[in-house]
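ugh ok fine here u go
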Amino acid sequence: MSGIWSALTGSGSSKKESSPSTPAPEPTYTAPVPTAYETPTAPTTSSFLSDSLLLDPAALHPLAGLDKGLDYVSLADDLGFGTASGPVGQRSWSDDLCYGTGTTYLCALTLGGIWGLSEGLKKELPVASGKLRLNTVLNAVTRRGPFLGNSAGVIALVYNGIASTVGAVRGKHDAAGGILSGALAGMLFKSTRGVRPMLIAGGMTAGAAGVWQVVKGAYFVEED
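structure:
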């Protein structure tokens, strides 16, 4: 009965509420202890070039021969040499075509320019004027230079083509083949002007080819 009465009147709960409560324990804070660690470093050049990182050249491709020494280029003895002063291999027909035509064109262009300069300076003018003299000289240079350069360049182009063909047919390149090629080139160049200009041009180019053969034999001695 006392328990029921206490529940109805609430006397028991008031006693429990009035009783002092036990204080909760305060949390304790522990400072973290710093731990020692290594500072990260960036990779250097020496680390990349260390022996452990180097690749084996032979492992890249076994047939490449990268683990062997250098092979120096050796010139073949049967190809012939252009000069006796050094190991310069003989040029092919395409090299002779390009170098011969270009050299002949530039030399003839220079000679034509000198010819035009002399002609322009010697020409008499109706009025003594510096501008008129300069104009006359420029006209003469631009007329004679390209004319002589273009003509000689075409003849050299035809000469080298015929010389290569003659040499391939005969199996050798000598002075006779060069003179014959020069005569044929000159005759072909003037073939539209008639027989007489064709023979004159053939004789002139044959003589020039003969002079070139003498110069080449004296300064560009070919080895056997």
